[in-house]
Amino acid sequence: MATDWSDPNHPQVQQMANSSPDQVSADAAAQAVKDLHAQVSPADLKPVLEQHYSQMDPEQMKAIVAQLQQQLAQSGNAQSQQVAATVDPTTATPQQAAELHAHAHEFHPNTVEKVVIAGAGAATIGGLAVLAARHFSQKA
């Protein structure tokens, strides 16, 4: 069953909102984050992303930013290449990471799936799922 991110009372949103990242299975977190990206606009997701990246281990954030940057630079899209060129993975801030992620979400959803959902690891994706659930469950 897909997570309905537009319904703050959806059982999966509520369950994740009341969990810690390690209590959400990797498969459930991955599916919830896929649903999140499919249903929520980059602008609405950005505050969650900023919080997510600010709480992430700095080395892990740098690795994700480097992967996103590489994928966007190779996208063949001039705007994406320009966005990628503005971020240095070694000094990226959580806000810059969120910007890069939001741009990829809007223009290159397969990149988000490849780098963030499949490549980031269960703890990272679980953390994003729980943060998103807590954020969107407050929209009631």
Structural description of this entry:
With 140 residues, the chain is an all-alpha fold. The protein has a domain at 55-140. The protein contains eight helices and no strands. The chain has helices at 11-17, 26-39, 42-55, 58-73, 78-85, 94-107, 109-117, 122-137. It starts with 10 loop residues before the first helix and ends with a helix.
Question: Which tags fit this structure?
Answer:
8 helices; 140 residues; 70% helix; mainly alpha; 0% strand
How does the major sheet shape up? none
Overall 3D shape: globular
- Calculate the terminal CA-CA distance, rounded to whole Å: 21 Å
Number of helices: 8
Class based on secondary structure composition and strand pairing: mainly alpha
Strand count: 0
Oligomer: single chain
Q: State the helical fraction.
A: over 70%
Order of helices and strands: HHHHHHHH
Low-confidence stretches: none
What is the C-alpha radius of gyration, as a whole number of Å? 14 Å
Strand content: under 5%
Mean pLDDT: 89
